[in-house]
Amino acid sequence: MPKNKNHKGILKRIRVTKTGKVKHKRCGHKHLRSGKPGSKDRMSRIPSYMTTGEAKRLEKLLHRRLRGRTQPLASLRRSPSPEERKAMKAEKAKAAA
């Protein structure tokens, strides 16, 4: 079976942080900026994070779990560290013996 491929257009527009949040640029910052107030221009420079609902939509396109602003960190499955992995392996070996 072929591998699932990520949506390349989405990958160019967002960054997924280490904690799984989806960071993106705000709209209205590329052109026609002279008519906008300076405060709006400064606010659009600050990257924002997607809400949980919007992040859930992207999960299908990126084939991975994501979390939004409101979703807790516990909802994201974390890979164990090498030390934790060794401890888990030792426990399994101990239980099997």
Structure description:
The chain has 97 residues and is mainly α. It is built from 4 helices and 3 strands, in the order αββαβαα. Strands 1-2-3 form a 3-stranded antiparallel sheet. β1 (14-16) and β2 (22-24) form a beta hairpin. The longest helix is centred in the C-terminal third of the chain and has 15 residues, at 82-96. The chain is elongated and about 75 Å long. The model has no long low-confidence stretch (mean pLDDT 88).
Beta-strand segment tally:
3
Shape call: elongated
Give the neighbour order of strands across the main sheet. Answer: 1-2-3
Q: How many separate structural domains?
A: 1
The Cα radius of gyration reads: 20 Å
Distance between the termini: 38 Å
Please report the number of helical segments: 4
State the helical fraction.
40-55%
Which band does the percent of strand residues land in? 5-15%
Average pLDDT works out at 88
Structural class: mainly alpha
What's the order of the H and E elements?
HEEHEHH
Helices and strands, with pairings:
Layout: H1 8-13, E1 14-16, E2 22-24, H2 38-45, E3 48-49, H3 52-62, H4 82-96
Antiparallel strand pairs: 1-2, 2-3
Question: What does this entry show, briefly?
Answer:
This protein is mostly helical.
Features:
97 residues, mainly alpha, three-stranded antiparallel beta sheet, 4 helices, 3 strands, 41% helix, 8% strand
